[in-house]
Please model this.
Amino acid sequence: MLRSHTCGQLRKSEIGQTVELSGWVYRRRDHGGVIFIDLRDRYGVTQIKFDVNHGSSEEIMKNADQLRSEWVINVKGKVAARPEEMINAKLGTGEIEIEAAELKILNKSKALPFELEEEKESQANEQLRLKYRFLDLRREKLQTIMKKRDEVIVAIREYFHERNFIDIQTPILANSSPEGARDYLVPSRLYPGKFYALPQAPQQFKQLLMVGGFDRYFQVAPCFRDEDPRADRHPGDFYQIDFEMSFASQEDVWAVTEPLMIQLTEKFTDKKIVAKPFPRITFQDALAKYGSDKPDLRFEMPIKPITALIKSDCGFSVFASAVKDGGVVHALKVDGGNVFTRSIIDELTELAKTKDAKGLAYIQMRPEGPASPINKFLGDELMNKIINEVGAKTGDIIFFGADKFRTVCAALGAVRSKCGELLGLKDPKKISFAWIIDFPMYSMSEIEPGKVDFEHNPFSMPSGGLEALEKEQPLNIKANQYDMACNGYEILSGAIRNHDPKIMYKAFAIAGYTKEEVDRKFGAMISAFEFGAPPHGGAAIGFDRLLMILTDCDSIRDIYAFPKDGAGRDVMMDSPSEVSPRQLKELHIKMEEK
RNA sequence: GGAGUGGUAGUUCAGUUGGUUAGAACGCUUCCCUGUCACGGAAGAGGUCGCGGGUUCGAGUCCCGUCCACUCCGCCA
Model:
């Protein structure tokens, strides 16, 4: 070893010992006759002193004078106490320093394309940092995140192992699944024209593990989806904490999940959990009240239906016609929202429009009385009724959505989230978990009117089983399916699965699939279910998003060692890249001439 | 595929109604300095103002096009 200790290790107790350290030159303070080097590794920083009066030869002084940022050096010397008034309280090693007696330069470094010190400037452009990710990783922030990522994974593994779950790796080369996101395809060399697909999730494999008798499975599962990225969505590959349980009800899955989330929060953050046990909100209520199936519940700010008030008599044609066409009118009262300027209201209006709202009506609760551009249409009486209904007081603002139910929810949900942000209600010291339950099994197709589609996951067990499928209106059937929302992110999704071939065929039939189609697409799983599949269910935790919240990162790229950029490329390794004609030929791929 | 914001020194940014030689901080180079810790001091190097075109006596600044980045929408069973 080129070191006897790490750069974060030495304390007063080692004073007098001769030690050997290796690391990177972090900072250099050259005083002529004495040179200080802050030597850094991932454990910390130790001050090295080069001083002719304290063990450093003329030659070492000459070499120390050459040292530059990020050179890799090896130093031998004696641990010495710092004079009382020279102690650096900011460093764990701040009470000591090394009096260098030997110096070896292990490697030099070019001047860096950006600075590593956190407190200096705002950080460099992300594209540049990604190109030199190996340097960015030296920064304290990323060192801390990677360490925490490791600790969280260890804690999760321990948690599941303590409860009899076993970690099983499922294939990376798998089959294209006809539902869901775009697949990453891998051409087969031995079977011309055929392809593997990288799994979007280990869904079918974990269900087959249940059939295989592994009644409690979990995995830190790599998942692959070829979709455009977002700040909270890494392009290409990402990780889920995937788990599945046999003989389990929804309550059983929740009972495993909830303590895990609490433990991780308490162990890795100082955030306060808003509500324990976690609230359970139906999908319908979440949409109506918060305008989202992943509401940020660090603040309440509920949306209220006022359709009933509008029904009787309303002079505002936007509201009246929405109700007449079977839509709804909802109101969002924002406490203290009268501080919003015209330009902020314009911005919120644009936001609502991105969710297909046609506009964003509002009433400002000014000190001199309510003011609204739509007052002249509403009339004072109706306006006062609305103000009364939502409980608005001076200083508030009320926003309105009038349209189809889903449109109103989405628009006011986006406005609610933005208002929470603008008013500083998204407290980083708080964390809100909530179960979103009772997802509908089906919804009306948006492409083919009159046709029924799966709302979410076709493999979920419908509530009420076969009987419900046969007797209920499809749109009224709920699925045994649940998400967990956390601070506005969907952080977990799961279900009690449909393990009964009969119910499965029926469920697919309602969505317009013939038995032959189902057999062709999900044959392996369905035929396995004919051999004594146990009832089972589970969930998958979005590990990356969870880690973003635990580490207070806004960008999902910060929590990967080697992230893709916003266009799905690795700018450091330059992937994706071209391959040789020979490789293409082996894979039976002909490139079109450009 | 669409929208918004941005692109000026190695990095982060400023740059006025269009007007001399495009600035600052940090970094870098050389020198000075024996107690600093974001050390200090002196001097210096470093720019195709993303790219192309246009308007103008004159463009970093105005106009058109284009490329790139980030964020959002679509998309994500």
Remarks:
- The CA atoms of residues 253 and 538 of chain A lie 6 Å apart.
- The first strand of chain A starts at residue 18 and ends at 30.
